[in-house]
From TrEMBL:
Coiled coil: none annotated. The lineage of its organism: Archaea, Methanobacteriati, Methanobacteriota, Stenosarchaea group, Methanomicrobia. This is Putative circadian clock protein, KaiC. InterPro entries: AAA+_ATPase (IPR003593), Circ_KaiC_arc (IPR022420), KaiC-like_dom (IPR014774), KaiC_dom (IPR010624), P-loop_NTPase (IPR027417). Keywords: ATP-binding, Nucleotide-binding.
Length: 234
């Protein structure tokens, strides 16, 4: 079996190479970054890669409406309409309604995954879900419960998280990094010699797999993300 067949490809040039071919099937990954680093773009490209490979994907959002997500993908020239409500489903949660959001995750998500045999699930952003809880202990308990619930499903899960406002190397609540198998950190880098700002990423964690530990530049293009795995950040 080839590396591509063994791995769940992100569909992002350069990043899959850094991940030794992609994510491990059935694993959990988190993309952590501050505003403007393209977390949602990474997540949607992960979804799109699955759809064009014939997989079913579920996108759970606490920020954007389904219409805005679809419109964003259309701007990328991705023909998403052919997949809507057949192999692509959006579950919109209300971050202001605690009980409704929690019940939707517990009661609606697992049957949806099973019914359509979903292979890819995105949660964007998990940090807003974490914000629903008042204490660190409640937050930790519910996230552990969420991860355990999905561990029993035959799908690969990708979450996005806002970085801590005081530490761009950590998620907002400094918790999701410990629960997932893979952590991809997105951040800005400004060289000492120049005022120009570059986007850069690193794979800071990947369980049960070799992976690149180098910091690599990336670019958000009109139709895709490119990670320049052969280049150095300067």
């Amino acid at each position: 079996m080839s590396v591509d067949e063994e791995r769940v490809r992100m569909g992002i040039d350069g990043l899959d190479e850094m991940l030794s071919g992609g994510l491990i099937p059935g694993s959990f990954a988190a993309i952590v970054g501050t505003y403007g680093t393209g977390k949602t773009t990474f997540a949607l490209q992960f979804i799109w890669e699955g759809l064009i490979r014939g997989e079913t994907a579920i996108y759970i959002t606490l920020e954007e409406s389904e219409e805005s997500i679809v419109r964003y993908m259309q701007v990328k020239s991705w023909d998403i309409d052919q997949y809507r409500n057949t192999t692509f489903f959006v579950l919109k949660l209300d971050p202001t309604n605690f009980n409704l959001s929690i019940n939707s995750i517990r009661n609606d998500l697992p049957p949806l995954i099973k019914k359509y045999n979903a292979k890819r699930v995105v949660f964007d952003p998990i940090s807003l879900f974490e914000d629903l809880f008042d204490t660190d202990s409640a937050r930790r308990h519910e996230l552990f419960r969420f991860v355990d619930m999905l561990r029993s499903e035959d799908c690969t899960v990708l979450m996005t998280s806002e970085a801590d406002k005081d530490n761009q190397y950590s998620s907002r609540h400094n918790l999701i990094e410990y629960l997932v198998d893979t952590v991809i950190l997105l951040r800005y880098i400004r060289s000492n010699e120049s005022s120009q700002v570059h986007l850069a990423l690193e794979v800071v964690k990947m369980r049960l797999s070799a992976h690149s530990r180098e910091i690599k530049p990336y670019e958000i293009l009109s139709d895709r993300v490119n990670v320049y795995s052969e280049a150095n950040v300067f």
